[in-house]
Amino acid sequence: MVTPGAPPTDTIRATAPRRAVLRLIAAHGDGHFTAADLVADAGHRGVHIGRATIFRTLDLLLEGGFIERIDLPDGEHAYVACRPSHHHHVVCTRCGRSTDVDDGDLRGVTAAVERATGYAIEGHRLELYGRCSACVGAVEA
Amino acid sequence: MVTPGAPPTDTIRATAPRRAVLRLIAAHGDGHFTAADLVADAGHRGVHIGRATIFRTLDLLLEGGFIERIDLPDGEHAYVACRPSHHHHVVCTRCGRSTDVDDGDLRGVTAAVERATGYAIEGHRLELYGRCSACVGAVEA
DNA sequence: TCGCGATTGATACTGAGTATCATTCGCGCG
DNA sequence: CGCGCGAATGATACTCAGTATCAATCGCGA
Question: What is the DSSP string of B1-43?
Fold first, then answer.
């Protein structure tokens, strides 16, 4: 899952392409986006960035915790910009906006599961889907 | 995400290839498997089934709730046989075994999130990763 | 300013999943 | 029990995400 091109990276440079990717990501605000979205965005804006570079930058940001990969209900892989600490996402099924939320009571849930199954839970992934406050009353197109 | 070949399906037939796929899935026991795994299994067993048929059968079972798609930590898509009701999975990071668990206190977590974010939660996806009772003490190879 | 090593992007490739379509098969009906 | 029709199959081709390669380029510290 690691895009090559920067094996035993020692220093990380601030390059123009990387800044461009950051800008593209910022343009998505709270919404989620896929690698393909960024490639398309770059095209539409006339910004010339190689596909590989976009993937590499994404990996870099992922590693640094500046973005996180989320799995949409249909199995698609998307990303959202977020703070670099453990948390989860609520993503709006209508507008795509996503908001960070923290573990909350999840600890209790995993504890119950450990007790019930005998597994030693080491990690988890929680994705919540729903309508954000702005889309709650909206009727589908 | 819907594999074609059976558009406005009226009746579902019990065919030999489908039974073969079921058998392949059963062979995985509690473990998870990918579509590619099944294709490979079929090959190894000398069972001749078309790739497309495997994907189609998988979709069918998915639709019927007999298997469920799970997302491994690395983003891979896998499937596990399971009962057709709402629940989640704990998957062992060592042996791949997976066990069904129910929502438990998750309801409380989502309620808290709704209160905190203003989202109307409609669905969720929860994947738990850890060591199953048999693998808890094991040292990695 | 110089040089080294990180970074880039063009290109090619892999592997998952989907589309197409002529052929075959399951199965309910007469 | 044999027919016929529509479901199902599988070979093939294709799309699309993500990865590998590598020569050329650029950032940045000395």
Answer: ----S-TT-------HHHHHHHHHHHTTTTB-B-HHHHHHHHH
In strand C, the nucleotides that come within 7 Å of a protein beta carbon are 5-12, 15-21, 25-27
What is d(CA A114, CA A95) in angstroms, rounded to the nearest whole number?
36
For strand D, the positions having any atom within 7 A of a protein Cβ are 6-13, 16-22, 26-28
- CA dist., res. B30 & res. B25, Å (int): 10
Say if residue B1 is exposed, middle or buried (CB neighbours under 10 Å; 0-12, 13-18, 19+): exposed
Instruction: Give the model confidence (pLDDT) of B29-59 as tens digits.
Output: 999 999 999 999 999 999 999 999 999 999 9
- As a whole number of Å, the CA-based R_g of chain A is 18
- B138 vs A: CB within 8 A: no
Torsional sign, CA B21, B22, B28, B33: positive
pLDDT in tens, A110-137: 999 999 999 999 999 999 999 999 999 8
Does residue B133 lie within 7 Å of nucleic acid chain D, judged by its CB? no
Q: Are A68 and A3 in contact (CB under 8 A)?
A: no
pTM, two decimals, is: 0.86
pLDDT mean across residues, chain A: 89
